[in-house]
Design a protein that fits this description.
Chain A has a domain of 63 residues. Helices cover 75% and strands 0% of the residues of chain A. Chain A is globular and about 50 Å long. Chain A starts with a helix and ends with a helix. Chain B is mainly α and 322 residues long. Chain B has one domain. Helix content of chain B is 71%, strand content 0%. The longest helix of chain B is centred in the N-terminal third of the chain and has 35 residues. Chains A and B meet through α3 and α4 of A and α4 and α5 of B.
Chain lengths: 222, 322
């Protein structure tokens, strides 16, 4: 196994040198640098909405990298899900909380070093896994596309059906969980709302302290 | 060299279509709305029935001062119209107007996904505009846009997925090659869901809550003037063209027609697009605006179940045929 791998590495290295990159490879590296830069700005900028928009840039760069690796389907799904939905959800949240224009001084967290350590560890693990898995595998750009929708679908539903289904169940569980949580909150919101009203009433007329129903004040104490 | 010339020529043609068709739809809207309301509409610019009205409007917009509010986030404010408009140009490249390689800007393997993904990016423009304007009406408009998009993206995707299942491919020319006339009744529910969700995504009446003029002035675009405002308007009309073209390609058989499909396929495509665009205008004139809760209820309790039912039907018929 390792012999074969070494032999393959040797032939690959002999066939394609790392020192004479093709246009696609140069583009890949450049787009990668842009993506990395955008990601760095995302986590360092003090302006919340700018961070979300730089995230769009980073995710878009990633989609371009998928395209360059001939994984067309994955690239468009990346754009559709991450830019079209996740970032829109993010922006929706930021707008709902009225993110200020300009710097947010309180947007910084004291967990910076920890976050950096976690990020570096995750990056190291991912890079190691990817390098170990693919080593010097080359994608031929001249033949039929290796990442087309048809090929991806065949792979997914022939070789990886079980993980796919497991993931579906996981997502379904998350979905049901989200609904259950929001429903529970919906039921509690009535009591909570009553408690809140009760509290405001107390602020309004401090003397009138016994105005709340026993249930509501019990809720408040909890 | 020939390849480069070919690509350049295709891009020029797509760009020309992109500039002309939205204006045609806009002018049609002027005239159709006017006649439905017992008016004449623009009659002076250009002489014959005011055909040059939108060109005159464009000249007017260019001459206006480009104002950026003092508190606004300048760069995002100025970038937003481009983000709103460019995706539609990209989508137009992959829409086939006739049979064969020659009638599409560029064949994309995962065409449906490309189209829906890129159209989703366009909405970021409205969100950027809404947030960066430093105006409460703009912010409300942006919020409504985001809420609407989140609700209507799913039924649109599901309806498109139904067609992809029927055709066994996600490439737009591939879907047209597989099209049979009986797909029309088979996929009609999906077609309606797709068209309605698309209208909502474009914020066209009756789904124009995000730009409801009687409540929040013009939503996310309130602070815009001059050319940037015109770009947003152009994005809306380009969106109408794209939506109608997509509905045509996915559900109405594109260049297929009762006769003359070989040479005159593009005429059928344009005809169907024109009829759909007329329906879009008609809805604006005749249908009242949906309230925000009605909007959300329509998406989550009507369109998504219908789209899921359509997918189930597609699956059953597909398995029965095979």
């Amino acid at each position: 196994m390792s012999l074969a791998a070494t032999a393959a590495t040797a032939t690959a290295a002999a066939e394609r040198g790392f020192l004479s990159p093709t246009g696609v490879e140069i583009t890949f590296v450049l787009v990668g640098l842009v993506t990395l830069g955008a990601a760095m700005v995302t986590v360092t900028t003090r302006q919340l909405v700018h961070a979300a928009l730089w995230l769009v840039m980073a995710l878009g760069g990633l989609a371009v990298e998928y395209l360059l690796l001939t994984a067309e389907f994955i690239a468009w799904v990346q754009v559709l899900i991450y830019i079209g939905s996740v970032v829109v959800l993010l922006l929706f949240g930021l707008m709902l909380t009225k993110a200020p224009i300009g710097r947010s001084p309180d947007a910084d967290s004291g967990n910076r070093p920890v976050a950096l350590a976690v990020a570096l560890a995750a990056a190291a693990a991912l890079v190691w896994v990817v390098v170990d898995a693919f080593r010097t595998t080359w994608i031929g750009l001249d033949g039929p596309a290796q990442g087309s929708t048809e090929v991806s679908g065949r792979f997914l539903f022939r070789n990886w059906v079980l993980p796919f289904e497991a993931l579906s169940v996981l997502l379904l569980a998350a979905l049901v969980g989200a609904i259950a949580l929001s429903r529970k909150n919906g039921g509690a919101a009535k009591n909570g709302g009553a408690a809140k009203v009760d509290r405001t009433a107390k602020v309004d007329s401090a003397a009138d302290e016994d105005s709340g129903t026993p249930g509501a004040s019990g809720k408040e104490q909890r | 060299m020939n390849d480069v010339l070919d690509v350049a020529l295709r891009l020029v043609v797509v760009f020309a279509v992109f500039l002309v068709l939205p204006l045609v739809v806009g002018q049609t809207e002027h005239k159709v709305m006017a006649h439905m309301q017992g008016r004449l509409g623009p009659m002076h610019a250009g002489g014959f029935h005011g055909w040059a009205q939108l060109i005159a409007d464009g000249v007017k917009f260019v001459q206006k001062e480009d104002v950026v509010p003092a508190d606004a986030d300048r760069r995002i404010f100025q970038l937003a119209p481009a983000v709103a408009l460019l995706p539609y140009l990209l989508v137009l490249v992959v829409i086939p107007v006739g049979p064969g390689e020659g009638a599409v800007g560029q064949v994309v393997d995962a065409g449906i996904f490309f189209v829906l993904a890129v159209m989703g990016v366009g909405v970021l423009g409205s969100l950027m505009a809404g947030w960066a304007s430093a105006n409460k009406f703009s912010l409300l408009g942006g919020l409504r846009t985001a809420a609407q998009l989140l609700a209507y993206e799913l039924p649109m995707l599901l309806a498109a997925a139904s067609v992809a299942m029927a055709a066994g491919t996600v490439s737009l020319p591939g879907i047209l090659d597989a099209f049979e006339w009986w797909w029309l009744p088979w996929q009609i529910v999906g077609a309606l869901v797709f068209f309605v969700a698309g209208l909502a995504e474009l914020q066209r009446p009756p789904f124009d809550m995000p730009v409801a003029d009687s409540e929040i002035i013009f939503g996310a675009y309130t602070e815009y003037t001059g050319l940037r405002f015109a770009l947003f308007l152009l994005a809306e009309y380009a969106g109408i063209v794209i939506l109608c073209a997509l509905t045509t390609v996915l559900f109405l058989g594109g260049w297929h027609g009762p006769f003359g499909a070989d040479g005159l396929g593009w005429v059928w495509t344009l005809l169907k697009v024109a009829v759909l665009a007329f329906a879009v205008i008609w809805l604006r004139v005749s249908y009242p605006r949906l309230r925000e809760d009605q909007l959300q209820r329509l998406a989550w309790t009507v369109l998504i179940p219908l789209a899921l039912a359509q997918i189930a039907l597609t699956g059953i018929v597909k398995v029965a045929i095979d």
